[in-house]
Specification:
The chain is an alpha+beta fold. Helix content is 23%, strand content 26%. The protein has seven helices and 17 strands.
Amino acid sequence: MELRTITPFIGMEVGGIDLREPVGDADFALIRHALNTHALLLFRGQTLTEADHVGFSRRFGPLLTHVLKQFLKPDFPEVYVLSNVVDGGKPIGNHKEGWNWHSDLSYKAEPCLGSLLYALETPPEGADTLFASMHAAYEALDGETQKRIRSLKGVHSYATYYGKAFADRTPLSDAQREAVPDISHPLVRTHPETGRLSLYVGQDVVRGIEGMAEEGDALLAELNAHAIDPRFTYRHVWQPGDLLIWDNRSTMHCATPYDDEKYRRVMHRTTVAGDRPF
């Protein structure tokens, strides 16, 4: 197994490993340490079945299932499909998902630890994913701002996000809304394994700052703009066979558009359970 740094602030490429085969404890310990310290891991050239994908994902912890159950694989409901493909008149996966800066499942009381996204079909152009280091973003703030936001909380709302991102779709059912009530999390999050601090914000899904009105909206907009400064971001250009793992406790990411009339895109995602931000 070989590890190569992608950028000075985020990402490592892991080579010399076939994830269809069991990963030994020593190698997995290195992988887990690399994820904690570099927040994003890239495995290229993989050929994974759904069972392979789920099996490796479980090494990081228990897996979650998405609230949009129509896009889960029947035999492996831990696998959430992202795709523009329509089969038999029905979409096989969620399309235009994540076209805003966010951390996966931040609207949960216990957001996920990480996500493992596997590329089966990718367009030859477009559909890149942008990632931002929230460690680097927080550490670049001036001391006065760090002190100001240290005790503040953001209100995370899946209903708000869904209403903005999918205004052309059927609204969430009452049951779906009840499954994802609004939740407040710290604006500054402590990584539970390293103790390092990071920003914990997001576009659309964070609808405001707890206890603050217009002033809070302005502050949130300022922090979101700062968090995605090019100094802290990496653009991943997908290839079929890529498996990308990112730490949702210390990153944000954003999907980018592509010609969805001309090209197919099929991605499988698993999500590792986490704990409550502090």
